[in-house]
């Protein structure tokens, strides 16, 4: 039987930041971070099949705004393909692929959806093109693509330092349940960081530590984790989107152990004590907006989960 390469599908998770400690802005405009990432069970899938030319397509879940995803030349998946080919000295013109992304992670939601797609593309194209890039090189290419991309490769629960791109796994003995309250409108990450600078013109270059949170993760105790969740971008995000503060208060009033803005927002995440508890809080938050009648999209997820991984391999028959 002849071997025929029919492509593969790679799944990559959304992230939330359990601790996002931000230091004063660096000369390059980026902020030193001490963050603790967790990968959660909301995924984008990227399918890649052999093709002469490069094609990129998109299908989105109902709650994802398709028009916010740039597909013409400026997609982070295009850049991932360019960097991976360049790393191996390959001409892009000779390396096509038919790539299709199925998005469930909200765009500009503070959950690193674009980063998940980039990580999935690196894993998929590395296999499709038979490159066998070593893990360290893949992480370095990921870091060039964006601060959150290395974590999307790694998954699990990890500390991020530098601008977030230096990732180290940490001990996590919990199985954590989250309610994710999505927002119809995205938020600009640079705008939230700029407002952080306005609020903290004298911020120390050393971001605040996460020792108590790391101990809580090690303990597996949701009440301890709830007490130590921290996000330095939450106050600037509240200033730009005052509705988020109301949202957090509502989730906590409905019994969540703690609510927090995810990354630079606007997704709000709520820690719950069990899957059942999370489903009850989610149901309580799914009430129509009195002004618009629109029902908010509220999902339940658990973490930690794996980083970008192949779910349907290269069929070889
Ligand atoms: O690295 P990434 O492309 O995800 O960053 C997007 C933007 O977020 C940056 O251009 C910068 O404005 C801001 N950012 C930052 N400090 C970080 C990470 C991101 O200021 N550590």
Automatic annotation (TrEMBL):
**What EC number(s) is this enzyme filed under?**
2.7.1.148
**What are the protein's UniProt keywords?**
ATP-binding, Isoprene biosynthesis, Kinase, Nucleotide-binding, Transferase
Q: GO biological process annotations for this chain's record?
A: isopentenyl diphosphate biosynthetic process, methylerythritol 4-phosphate pathway; terpenoid biosynthetic process
Keyword Kinase assigned: yes
Q: Where does ATP bind?
A: 106-116
Asked whether the keyword 4Fe-4S is assigned, the reply is: no
Q: In which pathway does it act?
A: Isoprenoid biosynthesis; isopentenyl diphosphate biosynthesis via DXP pathway; isopentenyl diphosphate from 1-deoxy-D-xylulose 5-phosphate: step 3/6
Which Pfam families does this one have?
GHMP_kinases_C, GHMP_kinases_N
As its record notes, the protein acts as a catalyst of: 4-CDP-2-C-methyl-D-erythritol + ATP = 4-CDP-2-C-methyl-D-erythritol 2-phosphate + ADP + H(+)
Q: Where is the GHMP kinase N-terminal domain?
A: 75-156
Q: Which domain of life is it from?
A: Bacteria
User: What EC class is this?
Assistant: transferase
One Gene Ontology term of the molecular function aspect: ATP binding
SUPFAM superfamilies tied to this protein: GHMP Kinase, C-terminal domain (SSF55060), Ribosomal protein S5 domain 2-like (SSF54211)
GHMP kinase C-terminal domain span: 214-286
Catalytic residues, chain numbering: 15, 148
Family stated for the protein in its record: Belongs to the GHMP kinase family. IspE subfamily.
Q: What the protein does? A: Catalyzes the phosphorylation of the position 2 hydroxy group of 4-diphosphocytidyl-2C-methyl-D-erythritol.
Write down what this protein is called.
4-diphosphocytidyl-2-C-methyl-D-erythritol kinase
Task: Specify the species.
Answer: Nocardioides panaciterrulae
User: According to the entry, what is the taxonomic lineage of the organism?
Assistant: Bacteria, Bacillati, Actinomycetota, Actinomycetes, Propionibacteriales
